[in-house]
Design brief:
Elements: H1 2-57, E1 61-66, E2 71-73, E3 78-87, E4 92-100, E5 108-109, E6 127-129, E7 135-137
Parallel strand pairs: 1-6
Antiparallel strand pairs: 1-3, 2-3, 3-4, 4-5, 6-7
């Protein structure tokens, strides 16, 4: 009788431990998923703000495509961007730029084609393709 109650007690303890472990795993998975979604929302927001900075840096832009997800430098708060920009003449160039969150213009960029990357300001609405495939007019 004592052995039987010890076995039942041991099974009960094992079931409790498994239940806690399973619940903890579900909680951690959900937390990781929420963190990933929040990070994606932040990166999309950075891309939108970088688009405005780009419009303040170059003139005659008609479309912009983010070729890669922004690469954050946590020490400086800057983001490395790989962009393809098309101008009103239909000419395109792909280049690297650095955007610092909150700035009105790009911090720096590499000139790949000076006939496309003309310093100035674009006031017209442009078509933007974000890295995640979403499109918007900014």
């Amino acid at each position: 009788m004592i052995k039987k109650s010890k076995i039942i007690g041991a099974i009960f303890v094992v079931l409790i431990v498994l239940g806690i472990g399973f619940g903890g795993k579900l909680y951690m998975d959900k937390r990781a998923e929420e963190t990933a979604k929040e990070e994606q929302r932040n990166l999309l927001e950075i891309q939108k703000k970088a688009t405005i900075a780009l419009k303040n840096s170059f003139k005659n832009i008609t479309s912009l495509k983010f070729e890669e997800n922004p690469d954050e430098n946590k020490m400086t708060g800057s983001y490395g961007l790989v962009l393809t920009m098309t101008n009103k003449e239909g000419k395109s160039t792909t280049f690297f730029a650095i955007y610092i969150k909150g700035k009105e213009e790009l911090e720096s960029y590499i000139i790949e084609d000076e006939n496309v990357q003309i310093k100035g300001e674009t006031k017209d609405v442009i078509q933007v393709i974000f890295y995640n495939g979403e499109t918007d007019r900014v």
